[in-house]
């Protein structure tokens, strides 16, 4: 696995046979980082099994350790968290790489802290907006600021949140809403978390948050479409099993569809609770994917679907994906640029839509191209799919997959994919 990650680029050799085999998916990033935080906010010991071990969960675990929580890693899919139920003020800035979940969830969790804390990330994180969450926390009386509306964030904690109404605009990221919901259970009194303004992108991530909170003992009810009431129960330590990562599964479902193979991931799409599992039905429709795909409820699956759409029989327009502009990179621009490197005009941006022209004749061609990946795991993983069918696609910076799926290249190799 490490060898693939050390290479400056990888050029998968197109497959000649359908991909077949059985793979174990990594654990869900979204659920692992929720469970790590909730376990840290609970007094006692929690064993998290089926967890993801990757850069995003590493940075969450490291930050919790820096705040006095004991996080053990007995094997490659388990965290054991021992906590006093509160986060101590760290002695140095917390570094969270480019882990959006860790950045947003911890910023809100630190609203209950004492003293000065700086939460920082890498140069990519410095471009990812956090101002709506900062504004919501400031409205609760917290002394908090973010330069240019992006990390680093500086928090001057004065103890516990009082409770009451919290208002948040989740238009740019549902993670702001999840972050407030999770800290709300640790306030002194009951809280109401209410959405302001724009509709949140992927509601499914809010559902994941509510499920994780309830699993760790929280009492939370939905008052109406845009309001949740959270009781000041705090959290209870427990053992918790994390389901496999649905976003990671989309690459393998797509590899199966593109190659006409059969890959056993050990769990049917219908059993996932994560939003991206919805992409499976669209992948199953390949090579007759619909002309219009609303990606709002399966955002992280769009790179997978867009690359697959390049091989579809007819063009596909992706709408509802404006948020993709503020992920690890501007994914709409990256997909248009890199697909067009394969064949000019293969994809174009139209406003915040992405139109993939579709060219079923791409398969089997020799079309050398160096694919930029913009330090974005999903751009690398999705273009690897195109490389299974097109000869000469060189994927730059293959190590960027370590954000959520360090074993990705190895998983493809296990299915018989070879690299130049
Ligand atoms: O809550 C979560 O776990 C996530 C929410 C989504 O982000 P946004 O809420 O920023 O759209 C998603 O893209 C991200 O990978 C994980
Ligand atoms: C957007 C993503 O990550 P995050 O926001 O958690 O950094 C992702 O994994 O595609």
SSE blueprint:
Blueprint: H1 2-6, E1 9-10, E2 20-22, H2 29-40, E3 42-49, H3 55-66, E4 70-75, E5 78-84, E6 94-95, H4 100-109, E7 114-120, H5 131-138, E8 143-146, E9 153-158, E10 164-168, H6 174-184, E11 191-195, H7 203-215, E12 220-224, E13 227-230, E14 235-236, E15 240-241, H8 246-259, E16 262-264, H9 279-284, E17 292-294, H10 302-309, E18 316-319, H11 331-342, E19 347-350, E20 353-356, E21 366-371, H12 377-387, E22 391-396, H13 408-414
Parallel strand pairs: 2-16, 3-14, 3-15, 6-7, 10-11, 17-18, 21-22
Antiparallel strand pairs: 1-22, 3-5, 4-5, 7-9, 8-9, 11-13, 12-13, 18-20, 19-20
Helix pairs in contact: 2-3, 2-4, 2-7, 3-4, 4-6, 6-7, 10-12
Describe the structure concisely for a colleague:
By secondary structure, the protein is α/β, with parallel strands linked by helices.
Structure description:
The protein is built from 13 helices and 22 strands. The chain has two domains: 2-26 and 244-414, Alpha-beta prism (UDP-n-acetylglucosamine1-carboxyvinyl-transferase, Chain); 29-241, UDP-n-acetylglucosamine1-carboxyvinyl-transferase, Chain (Alpha-beta prism). The relative contact order is 0.15. The radius of gyration is 21 Å and the shape is globular. The two termini are 15 Å apart. Strands 3, 4, 5, 14 and 15 form a five-stranded mixed β-sheet that branches. Strands 6-7-9-8 form a four-stranded mixed β-sheet. Helix content is 31%, strand content 23%. By secondary structure, the chain is α/β, with parallel strands linked by helices. The structure holds shikimate-3-phosphate and phosphoenolpyruvate. Residues 98-101, 300, 327-328, 378, 404 line the site of phosphoenolpyruvate.
